[in-house]
């Protein structure tokens, strides 16, 4: 029971139960008093009827109305019986105090002689006197009841006032209990939480609380505060440690980003890049000096590509280090990670510049790109140094990024060299096909001219001079055309602008009317494909100028579903029946090679109504694999079709 009363639920239940019992008792007593008052009021009403009935019976007796008197007497007897027995249904009953009961006894006793007198004939004067006395007795009975009702009414008012006092007192008790048992403990918890939110974990709550639940909460709060205080004491150290770790990781990420960003600067100077990388990796590793060495093609020497803070004498003496002269470069082909070289423990005399400079430790990092060994990066320290696992991984990653950068520069230079070589080959082929043949023809005409002069044949001399003049003009036109071709670039996202420029130059050079027609909308071609397409169209226009004898040229561009370029003329065309392949005509072969580079197909066919149509068709974007295959050697059937087409073209335009 005592434990129950210590709990908040027990206290609230006790208060509520006590209040409920008192309230129920007060309400029950109030109902009883009200019932008594209603019964007394009924008795007063009945007594009033008795007074009226007395006067009525006396009057009826004087008049001699015997039947009326008899009925009245019976009614009066019933009224006396009702007052004596009571009637709960009305309600009607005499108050249960002695005064009222005695007065009712007097009324019942006075009624007996009055009743007998009413039932006798005559004696009117005596009856009137008895009636007045009986009414006085009834008035005394009524006065007793009224006094009782007045007393109980006052008691009822006092009870109502007591109920009000009870409600007020219960409210005060409940509010006080709520304040003491609930509000104040919660306030202490709130204040403690607010203090802890301000990072002050020193406040504690008194666990000696009269309410068991809040005592448990206080105990839990104090336990939590102790745990938080212990945790917070170590939190600053942990935060500092984590901050240092994050700073180190950020520094490493920044180093990786800086090395990766070196590739976007667009510089091709490997020595400058190596010097910049040496500065970066020395700062990251905390090294006193750093060197970047590049292996030669034979793999037996290391060339100093870049360095930072190396002594001048050492950097000049070790510009080229043969493998085996010192520990640097050893096991370069088989080394997989950072290698720590303790200089003073080697005991070598050759190339002792590291020891002379005062270095005690060298960390050698192999520089590779894929399976290719590019060289080595060396970090020099005046003291002893042994990198951890994470630091070794970072250094390997940095060196790997830089090795990839150097390899990409080498491959880019090789690609540029190959592109220049291919363009030179194409230029040489075009020069051989046009200018070289024209010069050979001029050489023959000069010999004929010399022969005509020696033999004094004016007609031969004039013919040779005319051929020489025509050949010089043709060579001059070929040179201008080649200069225009190789100076033309798209310069725009689409190829239409370059095609219009090419046709304008073609009209100005040849006098042949040219028209460009574009149909559809397609995704713009990449710049490398635009260049090849433009050269194919230029070569087709050159063939028209040289061989077709045309008056009008039309270039049609269709962009859907795949790119298609058609160059058609209204010239003499070529003979499909008697044409043969001419090995000296390389224009179509050059166009075919350019088409194969971009995975396109090239066809040459006669034009309806006379002339020739050269069509270049690129594959649709979704057929990228086929374009890549077409960029290779091609299928034998395609090559045979080309042979037949060149034979027909050469036979028709020779």
TrEMBL record:
Spans traversing the lipid bilayer: 12-35, 155-183
PROSITE patterns recorded: HAMP
Domain HAMP, first and last residues per copy: 180-233
Enzyme Commission identifier(s): 2.7.13.3
SUPFAM superfamilies: ATPase domain of HSP90 chaperone/DNA topoisomerase II/histidine kinase, GAF domain-like, HAMP domain-like
Keyword annotations from UniProtKB, A to Z: ATP-binding, Cell inner membrane, Cell membrane, Coiled coil, Kinase, Membrane, Nucleotide-binding, Phosphoprotein, Transferase, Transmembrane, Transmembrane helix, Two-component regulatory system
Membrane protein topology class: Multi-pass membrane protein
Enzyme's top EC category: transferase
Compartments where located: Cell inner membrane
Classification via Pfam families: HAMP, HATPase_c, HisKA_3, PilJ
Ranges in a coiled coil: 225-252
Gene3D superfamilies: 1.20.5.1930, 3.30.450.40, HAMP domain in histidine kinase (1.10.8.500), Histidine kinase NarX, sensor domain (1.20.120.960), Histidine kinase-like ATPase, C-terminal domain (3.30.565.10)
Chief location bin: membrane
Catalytic activity: ATP + protein L-histidine = ADP + protein N-phospho-L-histidine
PANTHER family in the cross-refs: NITRATE/NITRITE SENSOR PROTEIN NARX-RELATED, NITRATE_NITRITE SENSOR PROTEIN NARQ
Protein name: Sensor protein
Classification of source organism: Bacteria, Pseudomonadati, Pseudomonadota, Betaproteobacteria, Burkholderiales
